[in-house]
C-alpha cells in the first residue's frame, strides 16, 4: 500500500490466471505524480525478463489507473534466506547472478532502477529454487546510453552511491553500487556502510569506507571479495558493469569458485537485519 495506491490480487476471467493489480487513485495525484506514473508504466512495458516482475496491462479510467503485474507469491528474497536450513556462498552467488541478469536487462534498455534494495527483490513463488524478481520501478529513469546526468536525489540511504551523494552526474553505475551493497549483505548478513547518524553514513559511503572484518569474512573466498571491491568502486567510470559482473568467475563458475560451506552466522545476522528494516 502506497500513499495513493493499493495492490490487490485479481483474476483474468478468460483464463482464470491470477495477477497483482496496483490501483492508483489518480484524483489525488499532482501533475508531477501523473508524469511519474506514466514514466513507470512506460518503463515497465519495455521490460520482459524472467527476473523482473512483468507488467501485463496498464488501464486508465476516470479517477483510477490500474497497473496489472505478475502475481509474485514468494515474498522477499531476504526473508526466504533466513527460513532456509542451508545457505552458502554459492547460494549468495546464485542470488546475485539473478539480480545482475535483471540489472543487465534494464541497462541494455537504457533504464536505471535507482532503488535497488532487499525490499524490491522478490521470489516468484514459495517453491524451492523460485526465480528472484526485481520489482518497483517507481523511481526508475530513462537514460541515454552511458551518458551521465543529474537526475535528482533518489534512492534509499544505505544503498546510495558516492556520486549521488556528491550530487555529481550519474547513470547506470548507481545500480551496480547498490548490487555491491546487497552482495555484501548476502554474504555476512549486515551492510558495508552503517551509522544511526545519516550524515556519518553518507561520509562513510563517499569515502568508500568499508572493510571485511574477522572472523566472518575469513571464510569468504577472495573471489567474492574481489567482486564486491569492483562493485563498490568509488569512481563510477571504473566500476564494473552488469555485463562484466555476469562474467566474473564467482558468478559464472560458482560451482567451482564459490564456497559451499553453510553460513549460520550470516543467517542469524540477516534475521536481525531484516527485523531492523521492518521497524523503519
Automatic annotation (TrEMBL):
A family per Pfam: Pkinase
Key words of the record: Kinase, Transferase
Recorded GO MF terms: ATP binding; protein kinase activity
Top-rank taxon, per record: Eukaryota
Residue ranges the record marks as coiled coil: none
Matches recorded under Gene3D superfamilies: 6.10.140.620, Phosphorylase Kinase, domain 1 (3.30.200.20), Transferase(Phosphotransferase) domain 1 (1.10.510.10)
Residues of the Protein kinase domain: 1-251
PANTHER family tied to this protein: SERINE/THREONINE-PROTEIN KINASE (PTHR24347)
The name this protein goes by in its record: KCC2G kinase
Organism: Brachypteracias leptosomus
